[in-house]
Here is the input.
Amino acid sequence: MTALLIALVIVLAMALGALAIFSFFGRRQSPAPALGTRRILFPFIGGALSRRALDAALRLASVEDATVVPVFLARVPLHLPIDAPLPHQSGLAIPLQEAIEHRAAAFGVPVDARIERGRTYRHALRQTIAHERYDRIVIAAASHGDRGFDPEDVAWLLDNAPGEIVVLRPDKEDRLGPPRKRRSRRLSDRTKAPRREKALAGRL
Here is the structure.
């Protein structure tokens, strides 16, 4: 009887020891990284949204399981307060952000749209890299006389922005516009403004 009791005690002690070792090493393992934590910044201005640059950002995001952060840069004239309403630029920003989201949906990439103000595009860029968390920037340089980021702005970004930077020069026929509205859409769908669009418009 005593021998059986001793054997049971030994078996129990071994089981408890194995459980303690398993728990110790299980706690030391680093947790798996959360999906979609990487962010790719995509600054653009009204009238110069490059399809090629956007597709490059979306492909990178698809491979890296990242979120694309399109940032519409709004230039505020010096004679206006920096937070003054900008209805014209709001009318540009919302359709372009919608076009980006439509294109991102085809790639299965999440989008987190932003609007940033500045006295110049470079000032808005400075504000963007100061306020946003990101791992990479994808940007389209001006070309063929189109509005966009000139060589001085690109050089400034390379010198001042942390992280990886991808600069693309768009083709001549590279501009992406807002998606066309379907005529079959119901009136209630057309008149109901999504919360996202209201939030973006409120920033301008």
About this structure: DSSP finds seven helices and five strands in the chain. Residues 128 and 163 are 13 Å apart (CA to CA).
